[in-house]
Amino acid sequence: MFFIGAVVSNRIGINYGQLGNNLPSPARSIELLKNMNIGRVKLYDADHEILNLLSGTDIDVAITVANDEISGIAASQHLADQWVYEHVIAHYPSTRIRFVLVGNKVFSSISTPEDMQIARVLVRAMRRIKNTIKALGIRNIKIGTPLAMDIMETTTFPPSNGTFKQELQQLMVPLLKYINGTKSFFFINVYPYIEWFESQVWNQTAINLGSALFRSDDESYTDPQSGLEYTNLLDQMLDSVVYAMAKLGYNDVMLAISETGWPHEGESGANRYNAAEYIHNLVRKMTAVPSIGTPARPGVVIPTFIFSMYDENQKFGASTERQWGLFNPDGSPVYEVNITSIV
Length: 343
Ligand SMILES: *[C@@H]1O[C@H](CO)[C@@H](O)[C@H](O)[C@H]1NC(C)=O
Ligand SMILES: *[C@@H]1O[C@H](CO)[C@@H](O)[C@H](O)[C@H]1NC(C)=O
Ligand SMILES: *[C@@H]1O[C@H](CO)[C@@H](O)[C@H](O)[C@H]1NC(C)=O
Ligand SMILES: *[C@@H]1O[C@H](CO)[C@@H](O)[C@H](O)[C@H]1NC(C)=O
Hints:
The chain is of the alpha/beta class and 343 residues long. It has helices at 26-35, 48-53, 67-75, 77-89, 113-135, 169-181, 192-202, 209-212, 233-247, 272-286, 339-342, and strands at 13-16, 40-43, 60-65, 96-102, 142-144, 147-148, 185-189, 221-222, 229-230, 254-260, 293-294, 297-298, 304-306.
């Protein structure tokens, strides 16, 4: 893995979303990140104020090109250049921008012709952003695009059965080719909570809560095809993606977790005790030295971003959608998780 040494550290990351009307100021938020000893932060945009505040810190930063900017950038190198100058060059290198993420969950909504068009030109937009960055001689910024687990066929068990949805395969192949060719990461949002919750509701696989929360005393599960033994749901979900990629011929594409977390309030299983246990065990696993990896990829570092810094009261969807934050609007922790003491 020498080739990505400059990019990959195992320090934990966090998503800093701003879809709330009651959130602490950016300055206060960056203070909180520093106090927490956070290694990386992911933004859903490329906000100038936040990027300025991150200048001079040792926090690695992922910034995002909005979905509605993708088609324009795909069609015009000039627009790509402009985006990079405005959002990257204005802050780099004093702000440690390490990832430019093009879009968010672009393959999750392809039901309208407009959305399908964005999905089709996604890789072209990624390539144009990369062209600009490369032409400037910058070598430590990777290009990626976060996807959600709805890219998988519903049956992701056992992990070795992992397959991408049939209708996405045509989109997935060029994306994997691009990510493999640029030695970037396959960014995926992975929520054991949702998998567990849906197994309760739909009663298909009856996943143990302990497995979703990394409880080590829980029973393990052996994949009958691969023979690999699993002790937690996150590994099963990640490896199902590994196997899905392998089925398309990509055995070595690295994974990054663009979002994972646990709601502290809301539906069944959503409470601050489970949330604290999940985050604590997640951080311990993902920051271990030497790296743990997954059963299919032992020892491999998987850059991971917790979702999320705050509850965001202006997010759409079920109330559980809005209760994933580590911090209250006044900046106090929702539950006690001391990342410094875990690492
Ligand atoms: C794995 O997938 C195959 C083909 O889709 C299916 O026939 C088989 O039942 C699956 N295995 C399990 C254990 O779900
Ligand atoms: C992935 O990239 C490696 C080189 O980094 C190359 O050897 C391999 O052929 C690529 N895989 C595919 C399926 O293109
Ligand atoms: C499935 O759900 C039913 C009730 O809805 C419950 O009695 C049963 O124990 C569940 N099965 C598993 C394997 O969880
Ligand atoms: C977190 O843990 C570290 C190391 O154990 C300790 O120095 C620090 O005071 C703790 N922070 C809080 C807020 O408890």
